[in-house]
Amino acid sequence: MEVYLTFDDGIQSGTEEVLKVLKANTVNATFFLTGLFTGYEFKRDWKKSAQVLKDIYLYHAIGNHSFSHANEYYTSYYKDGLLINNEGKRRTVTEDFLLNKHQLNNYLASICTPTTINHDFLLAANQQTQLARLPGRNVWRCGIKSSHTTNCNRPICSTDESDTKQGADELFNTGYQIFGWHKEWHMQFDFSSETRRYQQQRIATGQMDYSSSLHTNPDWDMYSPEHNEKDRLTEDFLTVADKILEMKNEGKVILLMHDRAFRKSPDNKFKNEAQKLSKLIHQLKAHKVTFKTLDHYYKTKQTVSIL
Asked: Which InterPro entries does the record associate with it (predicted)?
């Protein structure tokens, strides 16, 4: 049985802790990175963030998870695009993913040997297939491309998420393999609620500036004691392991997680939160599970094209 560990929304608080666990357990994973949050981390601590991104580049797989994460406006993001200034200008889904690719590659070029970074694609060092995941949606466009359909064990587009069709089709047709997930390690989403409240307050008081990312998607200090309890796991590792092993006959399981759920905290309650991930890996290894990155989901490689 193959399990694909995937982590969304990095680089952010918790990414470093996740990488340490993966290294200790000799497991590779796929990181769906978001440019805005990565940028916040680089502004906070360039040296640490550079090492985190370099480790992902050298030892794991990179997926494009958009630049903005839709600023939590998922419905309008997929319908009309992302509002980016006070005059009503919008950025399309495809443009948002393109911006993310450019920013992440610029960071990589400043960290690694520039000639090793192909700016036409967003790929880790040993990766040949471009990967993407749409923010806020479990949508799939993957498999070997043909004129009629795709070879995937999920529908081309989930019927209850058809608002993503145009954006997903554009990304797939430009070379991305778009993966959703089979199982999720559930957690709270307090920071999303905090962001929406912050946006609503600014709109209500006439202080919203849509051209400012700090207004539309604030930079929360997730290591701050006041935020210790937020965005924490709501399931234990045994529950998650059971959910995965229930799909043993399927042969392949993609698990969705979020880096920040595993971040440490100054208090004892969340001091070793990342060890829950280590325990899950040990439990699955005991059942002869093998771990792979999503660029190996299909044995036949799809030729990438430029976005």
From this structure: Glyco_hydro/deAcase_b/a-brl, NODB_dom, Polysacc_deacetylase_ArnD
Quick check: 259 and 271 in contact, CB under 8 A?
no
Is the bond preceding 203 in cis, omega lying within 30 degrees of 0? no
Q: What is the mean pLDDT of the chain?
A: 91
What type of residue sits at position 186?
H
How far apart CA 239 and CA 63 sit, in angstroms, is 27
The answer to whether 278 touches 22, Cβ cutoff 8 Å, is: no
Long-range contacts for 37-46 (Cβ within 8 Å, ≥24 apart)? 37/9, 37/10, 37/11, 37/12, 37/69, 38/10, 38/11, 38/12, 38/103, 38/104, 38/107, 39/103, 40/12, 40/219, 41/11, 41/12, 41/15, 42/11, 42/107, 43/219, 44/219
Digit-coded pLDDT (tens) for 185-199 = 999 999 999 999 999
Question: Looking at the predicted structure, is the pLDDT value of residue 271 above 90?
Answer: no
Which pTM value belongs to this model?
Answer: 0.93
pLDDT value at position 143?
78
The residues that bridge with 256 in the sheet, in sequence order, are: 6, 184
Largest CA distance in the chain: 57
d(CA 104, CA 94): 16
Tokens 């089709």 belong to which residue?
169
Residue whose structure tokens are 């209500």: 204
- 109 alpha-carbon distance from chain centroid: 21
Digit-coded pLDDT (tens) for 77-101: 999 999 999 999 999 999 999 999 9
Closest CA to 89 of 97, 78, 81: 81
Alpha carbon distances (Å) from 177 to 80, 145, 188: 23, 10, 28
Q: How far apart are CA 14 and CA 194, in angstroms?
A: 19
CA angle 13, 19, 20 (to 5 degrees): 105
Domains of the chain: 2-296 (3.20.20.370)
110: number of CA atoms within 13 Å, CB side? 13
